[in-house]
Amino acid sequence: xxxxxxxxxxxxxxxxxxxxxxxxxxxxxxxxxxxxxxxxxxxxxxxxxxxxxxxxxxxxxxxxxxxxxxxxxxxxxxxxxxxxxxxxxxxxxxxxxxxxxxxxxxxxxxxxxxxxxxxxxxxxxxxxxxxxxxxxxxxxxxxxxxxxxxxxxxxxxxxxxxxxxxx
Length: 167
Prior knowledge:
By secondary structure, the chain is mainly alpha-helical.
């Protein structure tokens, strides 16, 4: 393998490690956002959410750089630019393959942790939304389209209903 390919392997490893670190930082921010939901700190939630947008854009740039490094490595190894990384790894020397596989494993682990964190955040947001919706329905039942029977229980209309708004 030539020096160019060896350099590209180093660039690729650094990009994968940097991306894994950025995903780990993103997990921390998502956990902060979830904690602010639980504490009902809406201002804090907004600040964290605004920071997430910038983090996502930086991650997109690093991802694009990593994809370009994979394409360049494929070209350097005499393969088509669209060749997947898993096929390229088999063409590397064992001394270069192992560190690259380790970086890939760290990146996959970071992605898995990110999926878990987003699932937790989604659950928190859905739970909070459902709770607030039920509270608002209890406070303002007429504004949510709910109807109640004479005993005060939610009723389902069985046919057309006529509502006199002047009452």
